[in-house]
Records
---
Amino acid sequence: MTKLLVCSDIHGRRTVMEAILAAHADADVILFLGDGERDFEALDIPDAGRKKIFNVCGNCDMHSGAAVSRTEKVDGRKLFMTHGHFFHVKSGTEYLAMTARDAGCDMAFFGHTHDPYYEDVLGVHLFNPGAVLEGCYGIVELSEHGISFTHWQIRFDADTPYSERIAPVRW
């Protein structure tokens, strides 16, 4: 099984992102979907040398050299990554789904809306982890039996972080 940690929209909340990384130090792959690229680059990622780390730039990542979208292969599955602003995801996800499908991807990951979201559109699994700014992130597990998508929110109880599963929204 391969575990993907999916995050977006840090917007200065580095301590939240650090707590998420510590809680999921066993992640094999980290996908960062933009808006907080400088925050993300400044993080000390546990065991970073053994992880695959992929990122794209968001609409708030000024002067970024990262791509607006990219495709990657993980465990033989092709995935599409974008922040989402160029795909107008606040107005719907069909354009993103068509673009990912046309690129041969069966999964598309995006941020921008700050809302945890999952839906199968045109045969493409669309997944938005929500915003780290609000403690939200996603875990995707790939195995020979299939794919699982879950949304989580990290909270702090007397400065001790804990995560709880949350339900995604559907538009």
Note: The longest helix spans residues 14-23.
---
Amino acid sequence: MNPEHVRQLIELIDQSPFLAQLKIKTTALGRGYARGEVDIERCHLNAFGGVHGGMYAAMMDHFSYWALYSELAPDMGAITLDLHTDYLRSCNEGRLVAEGNLIKAGRQIALCEVKITDEAGRMMAHGTSKMMCSPTLQPVSAVIETLRPGFVLPDKFLPADEI
């Protein structure tokens, strides 16, 4: 992938109103991989004082999509068909780190997993996401149209002679 495309894309997707509200930051995108983090604040906690399960699920859904992104053709997108989550541990402070990995990308269906750990590397949650790939379902052009109309990202992939 083109490093300038990745840099500008991370800047763009972190402007999503939902991610900005939750303060989730994307820190890396690569071939079949996405990584990000969030510093736990009071707004992330449930009524019992632990991280809300929806916070874990939001991170899993987000980083699954972006782990798949590198394998999608430039005009393709994807939507989540199924998100399976296993909540393994609760916390109420510190930083959560999410790492998404592509397991398999078929022509129409893809499978990714996301592991969420705390600062000590303890597994907090694990999830898998099954996604449907299509040119009409959430392509990156829709991100641009929503967040920065008229913006043009650099080419997704470097020309073969620049690799």
Note: The chain has a mean pLDDT of 96.
---
Amino acid sequence: MRLCSIASGSSGNCIYVGSQKTHLLIDAGISGKRIEAGLNELGMKTSEMDGILITHEHSDHICGLGVVARKCGIPIYATPGTIEAIQKAKSLGSIDKDLFCEIEPDRDFTLGDVTISPVAISHDAAQPAAYIVGQGEKSIGVITDLGKYDQYIIDRLQGLDVLLLEANHDIHMLEVGNYPYYLKQRILGDRGHLSNELSGRLLCHLLHDKFKTVLLGHLSKENNYEKLAYETVRLEIAMGDNPYKGDDFPIYVAKRDVISQIIEA
């Protein structure tokens, strides 16, 4: 099992997760050309993908979906609410309805040799979901666009080997920044995005002795930067009620326009 971020941030998201036999994209929020270039760097092609898992219908997660779907005919997996919202998005053009496959949170399904576990999340979209992809005893979680976390989220994310976790913004940078008040309230709200601090606190609930790597993702271009996200999450781990320190395992930060290293589960 391996994970690679092709693009992650408020301007576009596309994540590769796969095994030796099964290859998946989580979201297609960048151009088809950029998706192909990113996969080429991994020694793969878009046409080799076995499915695209869509978290929700916001443009930074689906803007390349129409082109990829029409060119490669890849099955698209999403909740019923998300599929309905995608089909109403005129900017995507026409997508063959037969490519859409409905999934439900908390109902696992299998693609090739991996098991996919959709997780309901709190975000201002129709019916958003995050995903855990597992094979045998190994599992990788991709959890972004999360306005809040609760015991349900904590319980669903136990035992992961690798996690891509949202660290969207620094609260102070957002509060004093140039965003209009309504947008600040949206981001800070229960259906918005996780701050660096909340990302670190959630991670404290998920760490275990066999945990391997966390990749911080979906950073805001205007209200965050890599070193700040990294240091804030490390500090929350060090201060949290857990036996771990921030340097007990690798913490990386996914970039907006450069693919990440390959992370093995």
Note: Residues 201 and 236 are 6 Å apart (CA to CA).
